[in-house]
């Protein structure tokens, strides 16, 4: 008897893998005169996977194929995107494969990504994988002619608005990505990689400051607070504090600014390297101790210690008129914890905002 898969366990395939499948199907159509209804494509990790082809068309010297990206159970802005390949014969360029980006594939406008400025945002591994698939099925054709392939995503520009591509200098569409070809369900790898890449881009553009935020509200807050900084300095790290700071050290960045609210900052202050809510609970005892050092009466400190959330402490401090002092103390505790983990590596500034993005406090420590 077949058992149902556990919810959330279904893997999917990257934009790169789906593009390679579409390209392979289109080249098969170019050679045979008919685009197949499904195509077995080679993934970068060496696996072979069968992809349905939802649309195909052939003319004497060109072909067109579409594969719908299935992200599996991983939430992804590119899920169900129509990864489209249009190929044509280059009669006077035997052996050449020319890979271009079409509508909905972003264009690289800044250095630092390892991609040529002015070219399509098709990463090296997907680029190689697309060419491998084309050479496997088009070897005979390539002996006498070249093949031009254009990868496009009809609604890619709209989808890209929900990514950080613009921050990296990729404009006009999504990136074609993937190192193995597989998207693991609810994998954090893609987001973690984007955090690291964002910091690397800032470093390669000569920035000496990186501003790390935990989400959209805190990012808007720090952008307003630091208008003098270039857009490339701002990186949404989400919950990946340790990966972000390790990359800062690797890249030799001198100054770190962290923007956050009471919950995530408490996690940082207590030494959590990944600040996701589903990991270790927030240490409300730490907040109670901070309140006690400010002279707050024992009854309120006990309430804070017994509470389930850090937000409760923030609200109690507001009620007794100690908002700025309390959040300043928390910011200093974050700095003390991180300075202990990364001694002398970078200066740290912590900017604290409330849940509406209004500034509450800040603290700063120079490099030792």
Automatic annotation (TrEMBL):
Q: Which GO terms describe its biological process?
A: anaerobic cobalamin biosynthetic process; methylation
Q: Which keywords does the record carry?
A: Cobalamin biosynthesis, Membrane, Methyltransferase, S-adenosyl-L-methionine, Transferase, Transmembrane, Transmembrane helix
Stored InterPro entries: CbiD, CbiD_sf
What superkingdom does the record give? Bacteria
* Residue intervals passing through the bilayer: 168-187
| Key word S-adenosyl-L-methionine present | yes
Return the EC number. Answer: 2.1.1.195
Q: Does the keyword S-adenosyl-L-methionine apply?
A: yes
Instruction: Family membership, please give it.
Output: Belongs to the CbiD family.
- PANTHER family (alphabetical): COBALT-PRECORRIN-5B C(1)-METHYLTRANSFERASE
Can you name this protein? Cobalt-precorrin-5B C(1)-methyltransferase
Q: Which organism is it from?
A: Candidatus Thiopontia autotrophica
Coding gene? cbiD
